[in-house]
Amino acid sequence: MGRVAIIGVGQSAFVRSYPGGIRELAFEGFKEAILDAGIKVSDISASVVCSAPEYDKQRSPAGVIAEYLGLNPQPTFYVESLCSSSSMGLRVAYSLVKSGLHDIVAVIGFQKMSEITSAESQERMGRGADIQWESPFGTMMPAYYAMYAQAHMAKYGTTLEDLALIRVKAATYGQINEKAVYRKAVTLDMFSDPANPMSGPVASPLRVGDCCANADGSSCVIVANEEKAKIFSKKPVWILGLGSATAPVNVTGRELFTGLAVARAAAEQAYKMAGITPDKVDVAEVHDCFTIAEMMAYEDLGFAKPGEGKDLIRSKETYKEGKIPVNVDGGLLSKGHPIGATGGSQIRTIVLQLRGEAGPMQVKDPVIGLVHNIGGVGLYGNVTILGRE
Amino acid sequence: MDDRFKRFGTVSFTAVTKTNDFISHLEAGKVTGTRCRVCNKLFFPPRADCFFCLSSDMEWFPVSGKGRLITYSTLRYAPVGFEKDIPYTIAVVDFGEYKVFGRIAKDIPEDKISIGMELEVKVNELPNGQLNYVFCLPRL
Q1: CATH classification of A4-116+214-232, choosing from 2.50.20.20, 3.40.50.2000, 3.40.50.300, 3.40.47.10?
Q2: Any alpha helices (H) in B4-59, and if so which ranges?
Q3: What is the pLDDT of residue A213?
């Protein structure tokens, strides 16, 4: 069997409140990806639609979205793994293409979070954990990640300022990403000023500035077999490695609280499949739903040893000019985190980087890129390694 | 319909489960887990079925003694339904053969909480009449 490529990528702008329905939102990322790939809609032989449920009312959204995008009568189906849904969708698309069942597959991610309030959203996300034994205590995503932050700080001496530095970096690039929901600068001073909203406590030790913003958005990734990739694409980006893992939902089933076991397992699989080591990665997108999540990602992906992630951000090695640029599109923290669209947007960023088309965010001549996309609080982990010729 | 589990926590999202006796044990002042009678594996939270040996022959045991705090977080923003509870602290405590997730008792100030401290578990009745359990300082 031949290789599997990504021949087109697209995403909508990530916005606070999208003035349209989910089908119209999905159209935006899809159209950009189709134009980018230079294919006709009818060239797509299957679609994989990805989102997390209960933000909008549509049941079985794959059918509605396939109809709206002109993807009937081709098969479509729905893939859900919370915040990593569209990376899981890419894994499914890879399988469909690699098996020979389909030649070109569209992975369409979307989320319209603005249909509910922020507190309702926290309740929905909290129910992505164990609803029987944990949710009745009043859990939410920031509080779970906060427990990891608390443990990481206690064990390794990571400081609140180290976490804030990650937010400052994200905002550096969010300002130059036209698709980002948060386009303003963030400074360390904001975190130390009690009057500034960024310093507001959410779940100790995390503050407002440590948390990503809810957003509405869509993304699309067009996956093709080698034959079609060579016909349609001048710059195909190859899927070199895929890793995927799960962990117990209930935190009582876990051993590690200073890193994510799913990320470590998924990374190991992806590196092995790609035949590379972490030092070969030239640019990465990691799942920074919270600042601590990016800190742990540095370590879980092998960019730093456990406990030494803070040295990477202190020395700015994860900035665009550094040793391993991370989230130079603003990340989830500034670009925004529309759950089901996030993985596809991360993949888009890396594809554009490898094609040398990332504009003001472009890092110097990358050959290999990596995407780390986590669902729930380390419940689902996907790591994808991409490379150019 | 045996829907005892709807009494668990500030807001319960489950009513019917094979582990409903957990609630009756809370009412009697005990926090309990389950032990597989075939392979002796201990489970907390309690399970009706053992994934090690696939047996469903379980017995209850009390969570007792001192555990050590693994990690925690104090919430000052709450999801829908929990607004009246804030601030509250969630935590994971290691009891050796199993871990327990729950809240730390409100009478322990946040600045007295530290990872590694010893804690016990006790049943707690919430202002709305619901039941949960909290971690508190060991009795001397």
Answers
A1: 3.40.47.10
A2: 21-27
A3: 84
Give me the DSSP letters along A143-178. Answer: HHHHHHHHHHHHHH---HHHHHHHHHHHHHHHTT-T
The pLDDT of residue A117 is: 86
A136·B71 Cβ contact <8 A:
no
Closest CA to A6 of A181, A244, A236, A329: A236
Q: Please report, as a single letter, which amino acid is at residue A259.
A: G
A246 close to A292: Cβ distance less than 8 angstroms: no
Look at residue A345 in the predicted model and tell me its pLDDT.
Answer: 98
Cβ-Cβ contacts under 8 Å, A149 against chain B: 73
The verdict on pTM exceeding 0.90 is yes
Q: What are the tens digits of pLDDT across the range A115-132?
A: 888 878 878 887 888 999
Which residue of chain B is at minimal alpha-carbon distance from A205? B73
Rounded Cα gap, residues A15 and A33, in angstroms: 19
Structure tokens at A348: 């888009």
Cα distance between residue B34 and residue B40, in whole Å: 9
ipTM of the complex: 0.97
Q: Is A180 helix (H, G, I), strand (E, B) or coil?
A: coil
Q: Give the integer Cα–Cα distance in Å for A186 and A188.
A: 7
Cross-chain residue pair A138–B8, CB shorter than 8 Å: no
Of A132, A136, A147, the CB nearest to B10: A136
Provide the residue ranges of all domains of chain A, joining segments of one domain with +: 4-116+214-232
In angstroms, the CA A355 to CA A185 distance is 28
Decide if pLDDT at B37 tops 90.
yes
Which residues of B are less than 8 Å from A246 in CB distance? none
pLDDT digits (tens, 9 = 90+) for A256-306: 999 999 999 999 999 999 999 999 999 999 999 999 999 999 999 999 999
